[in-house]
Write a structure and sequence with these properties.
The chain has 317 residues and is α/β, with parallel strands linked by helices. 31% of the residues lie in helices and 15% in strands.
């Protein structure tokens, strides 16, 4: 069998990710026979039986007649499912990585504490030499973090926040029962939002969740709420976020993902005083950690077994 590794939908993106591609090639080749791995664009598509993908050229899957399975290099699979050339019966899997979960959890904790303790305001006060002992939000026992998306990463974030005594509630499209916190589904969305002072989005991107972070949703949050998006840029209606920040419905947002990446130089998020951005690095899967998982799925393809973390195509996750 032959494995194909594709990172980048365009030559420009592939060029930009050269170092990353080299790291993945080295990690995979260390456990494969010579010639077993082919790396895009130097791939003979007629021979590929297992693909590892991140932002592949749309339409190329139909050019792989021997393809038996696909695994995403990330926790999301929307970039694969959006390709209409994907055979509907082709097994698709996603990566889970304990280090990724840890890193994304650290990102959220930092953002929650920064917002709840108003550290940015104190930093601004320092530049003006102002001594203002404003009580942090948490001293009023009013802060609740609402987590949208209760998969592995969402639950990891929830447990970590609870471990430092921050109340957490959770929402998913299909109701989940978790002993550690109140959970809501679509029927309870309004109640969930009304009690979420900081809203964390870690939803999978599906047709049902695209654009879910819109002005209608933001207006159902408590006035002065804060949004953290570490899921996908397409969850957020970007113009609506600016409107909600400008009219003070939201106190601000921290964003790690965007509709277009890298973020265009003329994008208003760069200079908006209430919006903090990071370059899609809340969590990064490291080749050394993830390669064993990818190769285990490769062996499962060889044995005709179900993939680890195989997604439900109809659900999108």
């Amino acid at each position: 069998m032959t494995i194909g590794l594709i990172i980048g939908a365009t030559p420009e993106e592939t060029k930009r990710r050269e170092k990353q591609i080299h790291q993945w090639r080295e990690a995979l080749n260390a456990q494969l026979a010579p010639g077993e791995l082919q790396v895009w664009p130097n791939i003979d598509q007629s021979t590929i039986e297992y693909l590892i993908l991140w932002n592949h050229p749309i339409g190329m899957l139909k050019q792989c007649p021997r393809l038996k399975a696909v695994t995403s290099l990330g926790a999301g699979v929307n970039h694969i499912l959006a390709d209409e050339s994907l055979p509907r019966d082709l097994p698709v899997a996603r990566v889970t990585d304990t280090v990724l979960s840890r890193d994304m959890t650290h990102y959220v904790i930092q953002a929650v504490l920064n917002q709840s303790r108003m550290l940015d305001r104190f930093r601004e006060g320092q530049t003006r030499k102002e001594w203002r002992q404003t009580p942090p939000f948490t001293l009023n026992d009013e802060l609740t973090v609402g987590i949208m998306g209760l998969g592995e990463i969402g639950q990891h974030i929830a447990r970590a926040l609870q471990s430092i005594n921050i109340p957490v509630i959770g929402w998913s499209r299909r109701l989940k029962t978790l002993e550690s916190m109140p959970c809501f589904d679509e029927a309870g969305l309004d109640e969930f939002l009304a009690n979420s002072h900081i809203l964390v989005c870690i939803l999978p991107l599906t047709p049902a969740t695209e654009g879910i972070l819109n002005l209608e949703l933001m207006q159902k949050l408590p006035k002065g709420a804060y949004i953290i998006n570490i899921a996908r840029g397409q969850h957020l209606v970007e113009a609506d976020l600016i409107t909600a920040c400008d009219n003070d419905q939201l106190s601000g947002a921290k964003l790690d993902v965007f509709h277009t990446e890298p973020l265009p130089q003329d994008h208003p998020f760069w200079t908006h005083p209430k919006i903090e951005i990071t370059p899609h690095n809340a969590g990064v899967s490291l080749p050394a950690n993830v390669a064993p998982f990818l190769l285990e799925n490769y062996r499962r393809v060889q044995r005709g077994e179900t993939l680890l973390n195989q997604v439900e195509i109809t659900q999108g996750y």
